[in-house]
Automatic annotation (TrEMBL):
The name this protein goes by in its record: 3-isopropylmalate dehydrogenase
Subcellular location: Cytoplasm
Residues that hold NAD(+) according to the record: 283-295
Species of the source: Oxalobacter formigenes OXCC13
Enzyme Commission number(s) from the entry: 1.1.1.85
Annotated metabolic or biological route of this protein: Amino-acid biosynthesis; L-leucine biosynthesis; L-leucine from 3-methyl-2-oxobutanoate: step 3/4
Protein family (similarity comment): Belongs to the isocitrate and isopropylmalate dehydrogenases family. LeuB type 1 subfamily.
Cofactor note: Binds 1 Mg(2+) or Mn(2+) ion per subunit.
Residues of the Isopropylmalate dehydrogenase-like domain: 5-354
GO MF annotations, alphabetized: 3-isopropylmalate dehydrogenase activity; magnesium ion binding; NAD binding
Reported function: Catalyzes the oxidation of 3-carboxy-2-hydroxy-4-methylpentanoate (3-isopropylmalate) to 3-carboxy-4-methyl-2-oxopentanoate. The product decarboxylates to 4-methyl-2 oxopentanoate.
Length: 358
């Protein structure tokens, strides 16, 4: 059979270091993968003048899956928006129609002490945020800067964005969320701001409509402000959350931090056919880049998610996840999850340990 082709896009900051470790883990499996590497983000801009160079986009389109590191660095903060590193990930999502973003927040029992919340509030936490990724105020038109056309500030400079969702966009993410919930705890919480926003009112209507096709899944609704509160009050009462792009961005950071370290959490961004981009939930952490201390586990677990969701290699995904649990049980910790009594290791040593545990 033809080798599976993976687009390896390391990006900026700690991206290259952690993606290297994921590559070593993939290479330690029995399957052969064809990995092709390309610049993206600030690295894409530096080498080719654009955060999402044409060659990189082409590679991403023709690959069977994409393993993405992270993008962003202080030194690109002054570039105009269209050239900033973030445009790389936004452009990949939009161009490849990766509308379904799955962000698990799992607390590994060994790391219960690393959470800022009390152990009894978070121990056993296993929740999943399904975030719509190609619509909402992130991409809605019109947007821009202008002189305010009316109102109390008429004539003043104003910036504006448009929050919008079309019914089919809501429907397709609803189906993903219900299907996911069906395979888990059969509960789905839809998060919106239907008491204020028209977009949310439509969102809620469609969620209720789609729920009729999934009679075994219990749907409830939460306003986003309340959802933020419930996430820190009693996160274990939540199982699967489905929400729009903007609310999902914010809530998924909060959910991630419940687990003690954002350095542990992978994510998947999928299109209609389960082709996907896989990336750690954390950013490029330029402050610790190049020091060899970053936690590679979120990247390694992203590779496992890739095997499971896009490449139909669930067994190999299980192997990687088990290996990660083993190194944690053995007491190995990078700085972000270090506690007294454990063994502090660097990026490479952590990768070595996962490879050895496979
Ligand atoms: C994320 C990030 C991105 C987003 C940025 C880098 C554009 O915060 O993946 O959550 O806002 O979606
Ligand atoms: Mn974010």
């Amino acid at each position: 059979r033809k080798d599976v082709k993976i687009a390896m896009l390391p990006g900026d900051g700690i991206g290259p270091e952690i993606l290297n470790e994921a590559a070593r883990v993939l290479n330690a499996l029995d399957e052969k993968f064809e990995m092709e590497w390309a610049d993206v983000g600030g690295a894409g801009y530096a080498a080719h003048g654009h955060p999402l160079p044409e060659g990189t986009l082409k590679l991403a389109k023709e690959a069977d899956a994409i393993l993405f590191g992270a993008v962003g660095d202080f030194k690109y903060d002054t570039l105009e928006r269209s050239l900033r590193p973030e445009q790389a990930i936004l452009g990949l999502r939009k161009n490849l129609k990766l509308f379904a973003n799955l962000r698990p927040a799992i607390l590994y029992p060994e790391l219960a002490g690393a959470s800022t919340l009390k152990p009894e509030v978070v121990s056993g936490l296993d929740l999943l945020i399904v975030r719509e990724l190609t619509g909402d105020i992130y991409f809605g038109q019109p947007r821009g800067h202008r002189s305010a056309p009316d109102g109390a500030f008429e004539g003043a400079r104003e910036g504006f964005d448009t929050m919008r969702y079309a019914e089919p966009e809501i429907r397709r993410i609803a189906h993903i969320a219900f299907q996911t919930a069906k395979k888990r705890g059969k509960r789905l919480t839809s998060v919106d701001k239907a008491n204020v926003l028209e977009t949310s009112q439509l969102w809620r209507e469609i969620m209720i409509d789609v729920s009729r096709e999934y009679p075994d899944v219990k749907l409830d609704h939460m306003y986003v402000d309340n959802a933020a509160m419930q996430l820190v009050r009693a996160p274990k009462e939540l199982d699967v959350i489905v929400t729009g792009n903007m609310f999902g961005d914010i809530l998924s950071d909060a959910a991630a931090m419940l687990t003690g370290s954002i350095g542990m959490l992978p994510s998947a961004s999928l299109d209609e056919d389960n082709k996907g981009l896989y990336e750690p939930s954390h950013g490029s952490a330029p402050d610790i880049a190049g020091k060899g201390i970053a936690n590679p586990l979120a990247q390694i677990l992203s590779a496992a998610m890739m095997l499971r969701y896009s490449l139909n290699m669930g067994e190999q995904a299980d192997r990687i996840e088990k290996a990660v649990k083993k190194v944690l049980a053995d007491g190995l910790r990078t700085g972000d999850i270090y506690e007294e009594g454990t063994k502090r290791v660097g990026t490479k040593e952590m990768g070595d340990a996962v490879v050895a545990a496979l």
